[in-house]
Amino acid sequence: MDKSSTVFETAYDIVVVGFGGAGATAARFAADEGAKVLLLEAAPLGNEGGNTRYSAQMINSSSSYQGMLDYYHALSKPFDLDEEMIQVYAKGMSEIPNYIEQYLGVKPVSWKYDMNGKSSALPEYPELKGSDTIDIHYVHKGVFDAALWHILRQKIQDRKDSIDVWFESPAKHLIQDPKTKRIIGVQVKRHDQLINVQALQGVVLTTGGFENNTEMIQDYLGAPKLSPLGTLYNKGDGVKMGQEVGAKLWHMHNYEALGFLHGLSFKVPKGQRARLFVMDPWPDLYSGSIFTIAGDGSRYFKEDETERHGHIYDHGEYRVPPVHNNLFLIFDQSQMDKFKNDKDIPYSDWLKDVVSGQTIEELADKISVNPAILSETLKKFNLFSKKGKDFEFDRSPDTMAEFNEQGPYYAAPLTNTVLNTQGGPKRNAKAQVLNVDDKPLGGLYSAGELGGMNVNRYQAGQNIAECLIFGKIAGTNVAKENKNVSLVQKSDSKYEVNDLVKEKQEYPVQENQYIGRSNVGIGDEMVVRITLDNNSNLKNIEVLKQNESSDVGSSALTELAEQMVTQNSTEVDAVSGASSSSRAIKNAVKNALEQIK
User: Fold this and answer.
1) Which of 161, 416, 420, 512 is the most exposed place for a label (fewest CB within 10 A)?
2) CA-CA distance, 21 to 274, in Å (whole number)?
3) Global pTM?
4) What are the residues facing 255 on neighbouring strands?
5) What DSSP state is assigned to residue 312?
6) With contact defined as beta carbons under 8 Å apart, do 199 and 26 qualify?
7) Rounded CA gap, 82 and 87, in Å?
């Protein structure tokens, strides 16, 4: 929208749209340059964080700038990218350990040297030039625990006098000067009102990708649907806002997947996050009398190939396999027995959705695939297993076992996942958003997965690195633009509030009741109230406040609370797929027990 008839209700020096890793970084560095910043987030309080919140907290790095440069060139080949952008990106990744120490305030932890890292993630493409210099850095010795996100979020809280945060306040439109085409503000939907916020120095878009926008998934990725692994709030808002003001789009075709079998997971209802499981700790999904089929009943890839964020080898290239509907794991009774008898199985609820048939033809009919094709697929698989050679996809014979001649046979429904999308408004090395003529749109910057750098092959941890590197560049540069009109004094507008600054809530207790708090979950603070019986045993655990994932995390809290009461102990097993939430409630209960005098 243009400013010709715009009335601004409030003003800030800088508006950052999106409170994830990139947005938190951009807002922090803009504030450090002296700017008054408004940070907008569509999600409710406790659900912010974007994909950074759900990630493994891995930051791609390198011991050598030249090595990182060589590796990234090889990853992106044969696509053409701006060389200055690549150099800035590679230099930033080669300086990640210093970045962590200087700007995050913790000692960096090396996956390669401090954690004896041996994983397909390091490096994902060891055959490429420069791969020997690749490392992954963390903020502590832990993964999938939101530790990096907690630090980035705390940096915003530490700057509460310079940064206001509005939750449940999605940006709807950028406000553009009709003559100069400069971006001068943002229209925000807040408390069911549309508010025009002036951005005197500029706007930074950090809204992430379009993983939860079915129309964009279909139009740009050519997939009927994909199940997200990260946040449910990435809906392509930044793409639409960029298009409205004439931004050039790039990398719209590119996305990453993750999970077992090259970007697959167990099927979930529409609108829910898929469960993330990687192949390495769960070999029974691709080893034994088991294979994967597409909608016609045939196999379509090598099931035991190394996981590379969904990419598999395809005639000299690595690509995410074509997305198919009606995907299934097919296996026999002996494989089912292995699943049921596995005491260390990462997740067993999927067995409830398994379909069975006494014959392979009956099974095919139940899952709506061609019986003749599925029957032929089974015969060929058994033949390949017997011959010790997979003549279709070259799966290792050590992972193949002949199916039982007699049923029953089983099918587990699967879904294609999306970790993130990379497409969006194109940016330059200064993090400026470009128009269709590759010229900067004045006052508009971006960082993170919205218009991300990564194209073609992807190395684990590069998007988090991009959030930190280009978030800093965007925040620093936008604060220097149009400096002469910087906000001198904040107005008394009723719209200027900080949703992140809340008084610490006190909770009532009665006899034998105690309050415990924890900040180690994936969300905001968790608060519990425990009740003890007359023998000081756990009688009840109430979760009074929590902002864990609404799917797995929240259900895990109920389960663990019941277990701790039953066993009168906090030493209970974590719920699979909810390790951070499990850790949070156990720590909160421990904290409550420490209040006993």
Assistant:
1) 161
2) 21
3) 0.92
4) 421
5) E
6) no
7) 9
